Amino acid sequence: GPRRPHGLLDGLDPDQRRAAEHADGPLMIIAGPGTGKTRTITHRIAHLIAERGVAAAECLAITFTRRAAEELHERLDALLGDAAREVTVSTFHGLGVRILRERHEQAGLGAGFRVADAATRLALATEAAGSAEQARRLLAARDTVAWDAADDPDAAAYVRLLRAADLVDFRDLLVLPTRLLAADPGLAAAYRRRWRWLSVDEYQDVDDTQYALLRLLTAAAPDGAGSEPDGTAGGEAGDRANIAVIGDPDQAIYGFRGADVGFFLRFTADHPAAATVELGRNYRSHATIVDAAAQAIAPASLVPGRELRAVGDFTDPPRIGVHVAADERAEAAFVARAVDRLLGGTSLHSLDSGRVTADGPGDLGFGDIAVLYRTSAQADAVISAFNSAGVPFQRRSHDRLLARPAVAQVAAELRHQGQGPVRERLSAAVELLCARHERGGAADRGDAADPAADLRSAGELLAPLAARCGDDLDAFHAALDLGAEVDALDPRADRVSLLTLHAAKGLEFPVVFLVGCEDGLLPFRRPGEPRDPAAEAEERRLFFVGMTRARRRLYLSRARSRARHGRRDEPAASVFLDAIGPGLTMPVDAESATRTRPKDRQMRLL
Ligand code: ATP
Ligand code: MG
Questions:
Q1: pTM: predicted TM-score of the whole model, two decimal places
Q2: CATH 3.30.499.10 assigned to 287-398+490-605
Q3: Number of alpha helices (DSSP H) and beta strands (DSSP E) in the chain
Q4: 61, 89, 311, 553: least buried by Cβ within 10 Å?
């Protein structure tokens, strides 16, 4: 519809607006959590298109997760309408798939190449390396080591087996396009012309391959071989690269798998012409949460001296609740009761205040609450407490969609059925497989207790993906292949979200429970593993990321006794808790979550 002039930048503060209005040349936005980095970059893209005449098809935005890509696309859609569809919003891996599909021959792949699932990778690696143990080591190294590191013979054999089956793995999705563009400057130049406007969110977590790929997509090779045919150079001299990177060094949490915050920190050295914008106002969280998070990160901050202020009229912001439970089951029970209480369960009605509301009108819903943990094994106790208490939840699983046998069956059947609207084919495929099972004649019965129900739930899992891809079966299969994280988290569902700290990056929730604040989990260490200061600094950043997901209420909990690795430990409290001043926290206990004691007024803060 018609828009007021500059309407697209109305929702930004002056610093954010300055960043969004920066049009030509490199831009770096370096700012803390909740300061509106993602919001700013979204508005910037919309502004470029709607008000600066940039073609939407020339815009490429790279996000860290598919969920973030979808959110960005949705926000652009709200700002721009139809034009948003032309913008490419993708993860690095999605970008890799796209380039490889367009250039499969050059990359030595068949037109129908596929991304190997975890089971296939393990099988091929085992064949190459001789034992499952060696195979796991090979795959782990392959997922973390620099892309130009010399391959060992086992790794080379594994790659040969992959290729023989016309398969690539996740690492290939980054490495092969990078090699392709590095070897063919004309091709790199063509991609640079196609996407003249690049934005990269969460840039603090790029690794060397992603960095190399971005360089190829933005800058000419040093010898000038990659300069544009029209004579413009993309190199250091007269840097015209329209690349905007956004990030926060203190949220760099993927060093363990090869990401290097150094790339972010040297952006201005790579691009001396870069404009740098810092944002200092946190719009997300209550002041207590912002202050406590700043204290928690201080001992390891990569941006010392940074000031983060909360905005908003927070009179008497609530303190952070700290809960100490007897064991992991008691901790989970505390979370379940607190959820019930926050949502106005019976116990809350006798309180005269302390009600938490969602940001919009209305009370809090289950969907406004997240439980964050360091290791996915911690989810088990929470899930069983939620099941007993009747708390609905959704879990973001890191299992690949295709690793579920029923999903793989449905996908194979879909492929079998050929082109058509995907959605119709999907239900047809599910019904066909169910009928086959019910007849009992199928050999592929699997070991599910109720194969038909399992197949139908697989169909339901796949349905949103079908919906998203329309009639494009290839896109559907590509999306399925990329489903490294199921991203089953529906932001609109009225369910509590359970997710790992790593997966929580970039997200926000009115209420956050960060469980397992214990030595060994935060910072994480395997049993017997020595302390490692660099690893601990990254763990502290992870703790910081977790704390800063909370908008209104944050609870930090720990257990005095916890079962881990098949034995029971008595872990000390996380050292990360020590950095938070006592004035910002208050103890809360499980009883207070169910019983109200009027004289105990601080319990209202729960
Ligand atoms: P993170 O580092 O965690 O990714 P971020 O810097 O990307 O955080 P956003 O997610 O963009 O932060 O914004 C945080 C919250 O603050 C969002 O709910 C966003 O809508 C809100 N916000 C940001 N800027 C403004 C603003 N100028 N006015 C009102 N709300 C804002
Ligand atoms: Mg963000």
A1: 0.83
A2: no
A3: 21, 18
A4: 311
